[in-house]
Fold:
Amino acid sequence: MAEHDFAALKQTLYTAVLSDVLDGLGHMHQAMRPFVRPVFDDAVIMGRARTGLWMNAYSVAAGENPYEHEIALLDDLKPGDVAVFGCDGPTDRIAPWGELLSTAAMCRGAEGCVTDGLVRDVRQIRQMKFPVFHGGIGPLDSRGRAKMVAIDVPTECGGVRVAPGDIVFGDIDGVVIIPSAIADETISRALDKVTSENHTRDELLQGRLLADVYAKYGVL
Amino acid sequence: MAEHDFAALKQTLYTAVLSDVLDGLGHMHQAMRPFVRPVFDDAVIMGRARTGLWMNAYSVAAGENPYEHEIALLDDLKPGDVAVFGCDGPTDRIAPWGELLSTAAMCRGAEGCVTDGLVRDVRQIRQMKFPVFHGGIGPLDSRGRAKMVAIDVPTECGGVRVAPGDIVFGDIDGVVIIPSAIADETISRALDKVTSENHTRDELLQGRLLADVYAKYGVL
Amino acid sequence: MAEHDFAALKQTLYTAVLSDVLDGLGHMHQAMRPFVRPVFDDAVIMGRARTGLWMNAYSVAAGENPYEHEIALLDDLKPGDVAVFGCDGPTDRIAPWGELLSTAAMCRGAEGCVTDGLVRDVRQIRQMKFPVFHGGIGPLDSRGRAKMVAIDVPTECGGVRVAPGDIVFGDIDGVVIIPSAIADETISRALDKVTSENHTRDELLQGRLLADVYAKYGVL
Amino acid sequence: MAEHDFAALKQTLYTAVLSDVLDGLGHMHQAMRPFVRPVFDDAVIMGRARTGLWMNAYSVAAGENPYEHEIALLDDLKPGDVAVFGCDGPTDRIAPWGELLSTAAMCRGAEGCVTDGLVRDVRQIRQMKFPVFHGGIGPLDSRGRAKMVAIDVPTECGGVRVAPGDIVFGDIDGVVIIPSAIADETISRALDKVTSENHTRDELLQGRLLADVYAKYGVL
Amino acid sequence: MAEHDFAALKQTLYTAVLSDVLDGLGHMHQAMRPFVRPVFDDAVIMGRARTGLWMNAYSVAAGENPYEHEIALLDDLKPGDVAVFGCDGPTDRIAPWGELLSTAAMCRGAEGCVTDGLVRDVRQIRQMKFPVFHGGIGPLDSRGRAKMVAIDVPTECGGVRVAPGDIVFGDIDGVVIIPSAIADETISRALDKVTSENHTRDELLQGRLLADVYAKYGVL
Amino acid sequence: MAEHDFAALKQTLYTAVLSDVLDGLGHMHQAMRPFVRPVFDDAVIMGRARTGLWMNAYSVAAGENPYEHEIALLDDLKPGDVAVFGCDGPTDRIAPWGELLSTAAMCRGAEGCVTDGLVRDVRQIRQMKFPVFHGGIGPLDSRGRAKMVAIDVPTECGGVRVAPGDIVFGDIDGVVIIPSAIADETISRALDKVTSENHTRDELLQGRLLADVYAKYGVL
Structure:
């Protein structure tokens, strides 16, 4: 995979065009389910997945730090990283992400967070403009309910398999996972498709019929 | 059914009063389920239903244009029409509506779209201020997942039966379908009920007890 | 339970810290399920629960006033009260709360409403800035579908048991119920924990690692 | 409605043919949802609905007998009656029917019970061969969880409206409700359709193609 | 794909061993979801998939035969064929299979039916000992609710993709789809694994510890 | 907790009476949800819980034995133990129990198994008459999908908290967990209540009204 300029690509690409391109490459299960939503409407995220795998727990053992893996992953985040917390969502049980983790991640230079668990401290995260995509909103801490048990292993989040190093892209329309092996090809094709969509829109705005414009550009 | 001035009625009516009137006429299943939501909060829609019936598909045959019916319906939309896409929602599978269809529909003079499928390109549709009511947000194109198979036939959308020519009314509180056979009666009664509700509100604001005001106007 | 200054506490406390403190006291089922949401994003509510218990109904008997208990509860609301309507939500069936009840409640000095049923007249309630937490949005009146059958009895709302007189606290992250027997202890501990969270945030913003800050303050 | 010989009709009719006839009469919502199942496979039930409407409850008041309506309905059952307990199922909360109610109902001459709540004491009810159709199996008593609040009022059970006096028919394929106003017509047509289905089966068993047999008898 | 002796293989193989082998070949999504169940407990089915793709419909057009494709598929079934009806189940809407189709299919020599729709006439199908796997039991005819729209196209059933000619295997534990391209390899490996499982069972019955037996045979 | 003669108690007690007694002691959440069912109808289980806690996994690391904890728990089972596998069910993902584990457990003298995951090899387990209570039936091995990560820790199963050493009781009506701290009291009261229920049944069979019999014995 080439080095990509995430900041520039975030200006041009969007999840719908990436999803279409991934479909065309035969990868039809790359969009997270619709319950995964951004914490504010204009949040856009693009980066490399750093995965955390969660399990339910129903007690905390004496002397156990239930946040151990979570803290380790947070403190190891690098610029360009997206924390992906796989909680087998949708769930009502836990909000593994909140203001304090957002603050810690932002200070490490991370791009944001995607989780199919809940998020809390929504007001503060919006004020920080830190892009978090979540599986619902709720105040419940994970302590005594669940814990992260593995870092940088394959997981699922929002119904999509995510491997460490996959490209995560999220915007108002949802979250798409681009497997690292096809990331270059996907991004290249997506940039091309953006152009066709722009032409299509322009001609539609001039009043042409959809049948004609679709026949010409082949995108919808 | 009389010709109705949708633009004027949209200023006065709202889904709650229409739902109450339909209840009073014995039609208690006319409000779509709550998962059908407007793409922006102040969207209001009123118009005649133009229905499209969707089915799941798991492949595209050689030479097939999976968008055939969809394009035909879009290009045939008239001013005052509302595209109603029945996708057997809620669904995670497809986003049959997006920016390009919104553009095409707007250029034909259509009033908007109601679907129990997903919608994509939410940011652009909000900028266009085109009223779309949807069953969720997601980036997934329908190609290879589903297709429209019939136009202007009875369908269900959001749990409500919709026949071509029925009146569709949607606002922040949801979407109500007014069967064409009782549209005149429903609209007439609803305009009356708005007045009673205004009186009720006024007297409550003056501090009167709900028991007294309800006894006087009979609305709640 | 001591008298609490709800207006002041609403400025300082939030559901996440209250939920954590309740967890610490062994009460781990006090947060309503995430489908219960505020009708506007900056709604904050704190007050004493006045409960209304709802049942499904499928007809209205001759001469029956199906709103009888509802009106009685509304007209009896006192300053500091929160109407809690337990509808066994989530539901698609009824919107027991709307603009008129909001108006009536506000004129009695009530703090707001929490229900796991639907709410309607969302636009007007937002304009009134009356804090309503609801289990979804829809236009359906309760008449002929359900009715309130008991006032000030234990109920469940959003999956949490609520007894009359319990403290209700809601904000953007959800709704938490504080049983009256532990209200003083919960509030006192929560005020302390807010301070620790503030220290944690400050040190994270200075770039310290999460591992170090958590070791120092023990909050996450 | 004519007097019907339920015992004889139970030998000839079945839910599938009744459902088809009700469809043909324009009543397409008369079959309970598939989660309503017989407590033993060869249970067949036919009789007049005696309805009990249930609500959730979360406490028992001092001096209250939570079984009051339930006992009253049971002791008032007549031969040919079917107890229909509408619990807004499917539910995990309560098993309002069990061995003791089966015994009481059987001793009154009742035909059986249909509920969308749970049933308990399944082993004993099977031994009694008392036809009970239920919404699941579980041991939970209703006390402190729910109570019956009305007798012989319209209710819903398994997703179907049931009015007192409607005809209830259940067998291995499910439960169908025949509104009393169309009971005679429905039963008469169903007896005719049984004959056509018998002819169809006979000719298929002789090896004829489905296309030919369907063309001849028009049933499938 | 080689010709396989389905009758002999049905005696030796079972879904669990086939599912394990498919897992080992990297095909981890070949088992239908657990709601698909056999109509009688000792039903075993093995054969080639003949697929029918269903869509919801809400009306029958004048002159339309809604059973057209269904009848065509039934009359074209060959010995060794399994009718696979993809209805986007689980569903409460339709029972597309029943006694008459079972009779027609049996008379054509078909192996049985798998559907994620409902089945009706369960008693008679059990008497026929015709292996039908279904997504629930209910009396509802498809007419006016749904129709088959394509034959021998890729579909999904019970959450698994099924292409015409894939091998269908079902027993008490569920239904597994073996893609035709890997059918020979899967069957060959499965026969080997049966032997290892037999050895494992024998040694466990002799009282050896699971740890030791698993270390020796590597199956669980 | 006293030593209890599980074999004798299984003859006399049943889940409904235990659930009622636990209700009376203020423990109203001790019955597993109804999706947990016995693998054969006359299965009865009573014993001490030996818990295994499961998590989802999406890969198997090189050199990892994903069955490690599972095998350890199985080989450590003692007479009177019930293996309780907490899989956060209901689930479609895994069948962690099957014939081989049943064989191993039976050879250790264990009483049976309760899981909210799926079970496979249902035919063979029925033949063994080994009482297994499960959350559904399916062929899917856990390898690459999930793994047990802790033994003899508190877990949840079928929606009920289970601690090691709690008493598990299951029969045709479901599964009840008796916390070890109240086991003696619960069993003692249950034996008394069985007697009252027997008297109630006897008098009902003599034709007495339910109102009278309930007034006399107070059980229903």
Q: What stands out?
A: The two ends of chain B are 29 Å apart (CA to CA). The helical segments of chain B are 6-12, 15-24, 68-75, 99-108, 122-128, 183-205, 210-217. The CA atoms of residues 46 and 176 of chain B lie 10 Å apart. Strands of chain B lie at 37-38, 45-56, 81-86, 112-115, 132-134, 146-151, 155-157, 160-162, 167-171, 174-178.
